[in-house]
Specification:
The chain has about 170 residues and is mostly helical. The protein has nine helices and no strands.
Length: about 170
Amino acid sequence: MCLLTSFSLSSVTSATRVPPHGASTQHLRDLARLRRVRDRIDREYERPLDVEALARGVHMSAGHLSREFRLAYGESPYSYLMTRRIERAMALLRRGDLSVTEVCFAVGCSSLGTFSSRFTELVGMPPSTYRRHEARATEGMAPCVAKQVTRPIRKREARVTEPVLA
């Protein structure tokens, strides 16, 4: 039995309409610029970066960069930068040879309070507690596996493991 009795080609083409050639070319250029911003954040996370400087580097306004970056990657450029810094901080803290303050400044944060708050928000525990509990936890693991296992997950991204009962 066929459930689709009437089929209209116009309903399909309107839903999957391809933008004009110029628009798709511009969209690809914008995506390339956003990728350059993301690559710069990945490379220079320990340097003082702000959205205005990142936007100037790709000839966009700060507001436009923030909107487009969020659309493309699901988070703001600042949030992406802080996630990279926290990921690197987690690796340095696991080594155990640096203090929390040294790690804070090594990853490009200028405020220990902001660093600690953001670390706790993303990781679920303060950096000093993480350092005590996780030192040498990934010893013997391949770096690519350790990176995946220890990647911070934002609370809004965390999966619920058990159903919440009212």
